[in-house]
Design a protein that fits this description.
This protein has 301 residues and is α/β, with parallel strands linked by helices. The chain contains twelve helices and seven strands. The protein has a seven-stranded mixed beta sheet, sandwiched between helices. The longest helix has 17 residues. The protein is globular. The chain starts with 11 loop residues before the first helix and ends with a strand.
């Protein structure tokens, strides 16, 4: 079977360094993709080490690594605790995640993730999912569409965009990326067309894949499955993800502040390790996808 081509992982060394790998440790790569991060983890593990990887995308299964220390689980990482326990694992020494869309998913036109290609409205990371971009664009009522564009795309014109889509689809279904672009053409000024299109696509993609809810479910499981001194090493690509990761590391919750004692102190399950890490100019030149990446590392107390 021919393996799918994936680009080099973003912040490869820095992300794996963040795990502070022990040779006999147990680790999890919840966004396997092309296997780049997993291969680097395995290269640092000894004979008794173990690596579990997750990916809901069937294409990623073609990159499975032939190694007795490696197990690839074809599931969404929101179920990480459940499937680790199925394999007899209750606690691990580190978890790596490279959130967002893989380079491969962007580069395969028919998946519908990229603004570069003419494609059917799809955007499903799990190709067996029943909800696609077509459903969101053609079946969501105006208020729901407005919320998707506003909340996940941070688009000021969200109300007008939603209204225009609903008006257009009364006469014709919006089936392709080109049609969607034509419908929203008035909101795509020439100098900023790619930026606004990227925000529109991001909003729809997050809704299709329930990315924010998945991320919250996933983060809440981390304190329970990490060993003491276990590490998290997470790469985010947009402010919505990064904000959740940052707040959870700092406060152990996504909104508000934890309860403080009479001295003003509060307990949280994690502590940050080092400062925010971003790619070098050299890496961005080689891999444009890296330009918006932010790496945060945390350790369980």
């Amino acid at each position: 079977m021919t393996k799918m081509k994936y680009h080099n992982p973003v912040l490869l060394k820095e992300t794996v360094d963040g795990l502070n790998i022990k040779e006999d440790g147990v680790y999890v790569d919840v966004t396997f993709g092309g296997g780049g991060h997993s291969k680097e983890i395995l290269s640092r593990l000894g004979a008794k080490g173990k690596l579990f990887a997750f990916d809901q995308d069937s294409d990623a299964l073609e990159n499975a690594i032939d190694d007795d220390r490696f197990v690839l689980i074809h599931e969404n990482f929101r179920y990480v605790k459940r499937f680790l326990r199925f394999h007899g694992v209750r606690e691990v020494d580190g978890v790596l995640a490279d959130f967002g869309v893989s380079s491969h998913q962007f580069d395969v036109a028919e998946r519908g993730f990229s603004t570069r290609f003419e494609a059917s409205l799809d955007m499903r990371m799990n190709q067996e999912s029943s909800l696609s971009a077509f459903n969101v664009v053609n079946e969501y009522e105006e208020g729901s569409l407005k919320q998707v564009f506003s909340q996940y795309g941070e688009l000021r014109a969200a109300p007008a965009m939603a209204r225009l889509i609903v008006e257009f689809r009364e006469f014709e279904k919006i089936v392709t990326s080109t049609q969607l672009k034509q419908v929203l053409k008035k909101f795509l000024p020439p100098r900023h067309e790619n930026k606004v299109l990227a925000q529109i696509y991001q909003a729809i993609r997050i809704e299709v894949n329930q990315e924010i809810e998945v991320l919250k479910d996933f983060l809440l499981q981390m304190p329970e499955i990490l060993n003491p001194k276990g590490r998290l090493s997470f790469i985010s690509y947009h402010s919505l993800e990064d904000r959740l990761v940052k707040r959870f590391i700092r406060n152990g919750m996504f909104e508000g502040e934890p309860e403080r004692d009479i001295f003003g102190n509060f307990e949280v399950p994690l502590k940050k390790v080092n400062s925010l890490i971003v790619p070098s100019k050299e890496e961005v030149k080689v891999n444009n996808r890296a330009r918006s990446a932010k790496l945060r590392v945390a350790e369980k107390l």
